[in-house]
Design a protein that fits this description.
This protein is an alpha/beta fold. The chain is built from 13 helices and 13 strands.
Length: about 375
């Protein structure tokens, strides 16, 4: 492999690094993946809804058949819940597929794509894949809050798209609806497409007053993204959806692959939507355990947890003198996986991200961190 190709591959792997690499880590460490505690993937600690598991089992008879190519039953259920038209909804093979379809449908390879940092790596990956020019807007280092005014000011005549994660990954910051509407109106004036990723918003107690799902069909430039990966823990089945104005959704529907959502994924997603008690229990657990985890992390000398509206916590390790990679390696020897955040632009080498899990698992993490850094 030439030096240029090798450098290109390393750069690509760097900005596309993700958590949830349990299979690769299990192979590398020769461990049973079921014996690993994975805090690097931010998934509902209750696991999938019992109703979803039942629906999946009852749908096994569908396996010899192709799924509905347009995921019509799932899209209809989402449209009814959000009181919108079927043509305003698209289902995807995970929310990541929709991010790339959004980029394919809207980026012409001539303009700039505004991406606040630090944030989810797939926005940059999709931008580069379809020839866009990423224009990063970095947050202040004190609290890593979205530099909102800078983002608004950055939208100009050369802008071809905007990505916003709300709540943001990995910081957990949630932007209020009024501020988001201000940005959307600014992009609408300039005819700039904008994708708001609300993958984690269902874990927030402020979801009702912050989400833009009910506003999305009203703006001709807006797509709002949701997922069944995080709240509903259908991670391995890969299913997500987006809602938006038909002018935004139609080009995405036209470009997606046929049969992109499999039969079992659709059955699990449909059942999950109807399990409101499961969502209520999840929120109660996550809020309780997040407070516990933040408190215990804050008591460990040298660690600094950041406030979060999601089901994960960003933690600075700088005052311990240990880098995120060193802490990640030490925890892995104890069978615990955390997210080394050094691949996030703007963070550096002293941040880890940990998911909120059940009490016994959270206590295991805290005990291990105390042994490593004190």
């Amino acid at each position: 492999m030439s030096k240029e190709k090798s450098h290109s591959r390393l750069c690509r792997e760097s900005y596309r690094s993700h958590g949830g690499r349990i299979w690769q880590i299990a192979r590398r460490t020769r461990r049973d993946p079921r014996e690993l505690l994975d805090f690097s993937a931010n998934i509902n600690p209750l696991g999938p809804s019992p109703k979803a598991l039942s629906a999946i089992r009852e749908s096994l008879w569908k396996l010899p058949h192709y799924p509905d190519s347009d995921s019509t039953p799932l899209r209809q259920a989402i449209a009814r819940r959000l009181s919108t038209a079927l043509d305003s909804v698209v289902a995807g093979n995970g929310s990541t597929e929709i991010i790339h379809l959004f980029a394919e449908a809207n980026f012409q390879g001539k303009g700039e794509i505004v991406i606040p940092q630090p944030t989810f790596a797939e926005y940059e990956a999709a931008t580069r894949r379809f020839g866009g020019k990423p224009r990063f807007v970095f947050s202040g280092r004190k609290w890593f809050c979205l530099p909102f005014d800078k983002v608004v000011a950055r939208v100009g005549s050369k802008t071809e798209g905007v990505f916003i994660c709300n709540p943001n990954n990995p910081t957990g910051e949630l932007i209020e609806r009024n501020r988001m509407l201000e940005l959307i109106e600014k992009t609408e004036e300039k005819n700039v497409p904008i994708l708001i990723d609300e993958t984690f918003i269902e874990f927030s107690e402020r979801e009702k007053n912050s989400s833009l799902t009910h506003f999305a069909p009203k703006f001709p430039n807006l797509v709002v993204l949701r997922s069944f990966t995080k709240m509903y823990a259908l991670t391995g089945l890969r299913v997500g959806f987006a809602i938006g104005h038909t002018d935004m959704i139609e080009p995405i529907l036209r470009r997606k692959e046929p049969w992109n959502v499999n039969c079992l994924a659709e059955a699990g997603a449909l059942a999950s939507l109807g399990d409101e008690d499961y969502v209520r229990r999840t929120r109660e657990l996550v809020q309780k355990e997040k407070l516990f985890l933040q408190d215990r992390l804050d008591r460990i000398p040298g660690l600094r947890p950041f406030p979060s509206e999601a089901n994960f916590i960003l933690v600075s390790t700088q005052k311990t003198g240990k880098t995120s990679r060193e802490i990640q390696s030490s925890l892995l020897r104890k069978g615990i996986i955390v997210r080394d955040c050094s691949s996030f632009r703007g963070l550096g080498d002293f941040f880890i991200r940990v998911a909120v899990k059940r009490r016994e698992h959270n206590e295991t993490l805290i005990k291990a961190l105390v042994e490593i850094v004190t």
